[in-house]
Amino acid sequence: MSEDCDSTAGPLWTQIAERAEEQGTTAVAICAELESALSEWPPEEAAEYRAELDMGPAGLERLVHAGYRLLDLLTFFTATGTNVVRAWTLRRGQTAYDAAGKVHTDMQRGFIRAEVIAYSDLMSAGDFGVARERGLVRVEGRDYIVADGDILHIRFSPPR
Q: What are the E-state strand segments in the chain?
């Protein structure tokens, strides 16, 4: 988009948005010059400025989310019981068994079960211990369809 970032009102943007809608997807307008400048700001200040301009999330974030929707992908997380958390990509509709294979083929071969909690449930509980006490962590089998934002602890028996 142009420097004034008001190009979504113009005829070219209308044509692009209509074409995207015809194809069953969305178009993402990004003011590259402004996004570039904001990327150099402290994150809190950039977020505050975006809010003042009613811009919503950063352009890169909007682009990534649109790409995930277009490709029908979701993100799930794994945690090792320490401070290490990792994000993984999976196609929507895939199972806990498929997720185990994304992490490591040995996990998939020796899959026993997955302990699952939704991201929002973990955040409301504050930590895994409280989440377990509240019954928010559930045990799922290999056919469980992974949801976007799920946190999985995959139990497996290592192959010999």
A: 73-79, 85-91, 111-118, 138-140, 150-156
Output the CA torsion 64→65→69→71 (10° steps): 20
Structural domains of the chain ordered from first start: 7-70 (no CATH), 72-156 (3.10.20.30)
The most confident of the ranges 30-39, 66-75, 77-86 is: 66-75
The span from the CA of 79 to the CA of 125, in Å, is 16
Cβ neighbour number for residue 112 with a 10 Å cutoff: 13
> Which tokens go with 6?
């008001």
Handedness of CA 63, 91, 128, 83 (dihedral sign): negative
Interatomic CA distance for residues 26 and 24, integer angstroms: 7
Residue 154 has which token pair?
């995959």
Summarize the confidence of residues 85-111 as an average pLDDT. 95
As given in the structure block, the two tokens for residue 118 are: 């939704």
pLDDT of residue 2: 62
Q: What is the DSSP letter of 27?
A: -
Q: Has this prediction a pTM greater than 0.85?
A: no
